[in-house]
Amino acid sequence: MNTGREMKLWKFSLDTTKTEQRYDWPYVVTVLSVQMQNSIPVLWALVYPDSPKRLYKIMRFLTGDSVYGVVRHLGTITTTAGDVLHYFAGGPGL
Questions:
Q1: Which of 3, 14, 86, 90 has the lowest CB atom count within 10 Å?
Q2: What is the pTM of this model?
Q3: pLDDT computed for residue 13 by the predictor
């Protein structure tokens, strides 16, 4: 569907230490991938860069953690230390 608005591919660094994270990002059309890049977890997304910023909540869990407040899985990564981190959307919009 062509809306006439320009979409761009952007990347966003994610925190490895906080279970609940909040970010002010432009409107995210879709999350493409979550991967490690230079030892930093990164989320790639297709966005409308000129749209007003929205608050997005992302939840991070380790394998074996109790999981709560999630909407959908965004990706799983393994850190250089060997920890496996699972990232989830913590609300509508991602």
A1: 3
A2: 0.86
A3: 95
